[in-house]
Every structure is written in C-alpha cells, then in structure tokens.
Amino acid sequence: MFSGKVAIITGSAQGLGKAFSRVLLEQGGKVCLSDVNPNVLEKTYEEFKAEFADSVFSLPCDVTEKEQLREVFRRTKETFGRIDLVVNNAGIVHEVQWEKCIDINLNGTIRGTQLGLEYLRRDNGGNGGVILNMASLAGIFPVNYTPVYCATKHAIIGYTRSWALHPDAVNNGVRLVCLCPSFVDTDMIKMDDKSKYIGPDLAQSVLDKHGVMSIDKITQEFLNAIGDETNNGVSIAITKEGVKNIPSPRP
Ligand SMILES: NC(=O)c1ccc[n+]([C@@H]2O[C@H](COP(=O)([O-])OP(=O)(O)OC[C@H]3O[C@@H](n4cnc5c(N)ncnc54)[C@H](O)[C@@H]3O)[C@@H](O)[C@H]2O)c1
Asked: 203: domain CATH number?
C-alpha cells in the first residue's frame, strides 16, 4: 500500500512515531525519522538501517525550530525525490511548562502542516498526499488533569478540519486527518515524572477507567487512516471500545 512512497514522521525516535515508521518501512515505503532526542533517534535509526537499508534516514529536529523542520523537508525531498505523507506526531504532556507544551504540540503541528502543504500540493510540484496530525481523545473530550494538553489537541483538530476544507488543499490532492487515540502504552503515560501533572491521582483514576491500548492497535488504525481516501477532515477516535470516524461539521 505504501510501497515506493515517502513519509516524514516527527517525534519518531520512540513510541507511536517509531511504530508508524516501522510499519511503513515494512510495506516498502521510505521514511525520514526525526526527533528532538538525538541519542534515542540514533538508536532507532541504527535498528531500522540494519533492516531496511537506504529506505530510512534520520535527522535530529526540534519541531519548535522552524528552520530545523524546514531542513527535514528539504533533505527528505533531496534524498528520496518526493514526499507523500507527513505525520505531525511529536508531542508532550506538560502542564507546568505549558508554553512549551503548546509550542511543541500545536505550533509544531502547524509548522509541519504548513510545510506539508508546501511540499505536497500539486500546483507547487508535489504529488498530493496525506497530512496526518496526531491529536488525541483529549482533542474531543475534556481532561481534568491536563487542561493545556487538552487545549492543544482540541486546537489541532480545529486546525486540521479547517485546512481540510480549504481549496488549496482540496484542489491540490492533499488530504488531512487527525488520529485521536485514548491512552496508549508509551512513555507518555508513565507517571514517573509526576511533576508534569497537575494531579497525578486524578491521572491514575482516568487511566484506570479507560484502560491502555497497545501500540499495535493504533498502528493498524494509522494504516487504515492513511489508506482511506474518503476521510478528509475526519477525526478518528480510537478507544478500547472501538474506532469511530467523526466527520468535520460543515460550517
Ligand atoms: N500515548 C498516549 O496515550 C497518546 C494518546 C493520544 C495521543 N498521543 C499522541 O501521540 C503522539 C506520540 O506520543 P507517544 O505516546 O508516542 O509519546 P512518546 O513520549 O513515547 O513519544 C514522543 C516523541 O516525541 C519526541 N518529541 C518531544 N518533543 C519534541 C520536539 N520538540 N521536537 C521533536 N520531537 C519531540 C520525543 O523525544 C519522543 O520521541 C503525541 O502527539 C501524543 O500527544 C499519545
């Protein structure tokens, strides 16, 4: 399905971004790994390089740094000759350093989407393609212990839906979707750094109520999302109970 195609995935040294990268490489795709953490990135790159050779390369990138992100796009196009999929995946939970949380989750997604549109749109030399923005179930429902994180994910959905209606995207073959999982078994939900949270007890009770999904489950829905040509503007809610495509309301 993704054979011969090219993806950029931010925050792909570990967790969901790494799993998404692996599944695309297994399908015969090519991937630019990028992450703010150079050590973990290098480890993941070495692991993938051994298996997938020249189909993968990596570039350290902090999504809060516009020029670093631009360089990821430039180098990916230069290396692989095309870009078909942009996954704005880098994200953190941090209610204390809340400006940083907004800059990574929301502003980083906006930066990546703008660059994605620039490189994908057909009237600018691209081939069309998909921009998949990592939102969360916290982009649809309130979360009492992470209001800032929740705000960033709500905003990502509004931003993505808006571009999905824009003629510059629609008429240039660019499709935009949001993935909105509930809790997934990655470092993000580890409660080892409780200072990140306004209320760790609140967090644990919400976690206990909703349960934690496997990375594999989300990876399958990621593949479904990028393959479904009818889902422009859709927010895909993924919970232990099932998957629900929430279409964008029409203004
Ligand atoms: N795990 C969950 O329960 C869950 C649920 C819903 C949505 N999400 C979203 O999925 C995405 C991936 O999260 P994850 O669960 O894999 O977490 P994770 O912490 O395992 O991975 C996040 C990655 O992003 C990287 N990153 C952090 N700041 C960055 C920056 N400034 N620039 C570039 N990379 C940066 C980290 O180094 C890390 O490799 C996030 O957007 C998160 O909000 C996660």
From this structure: 3.40.50.720
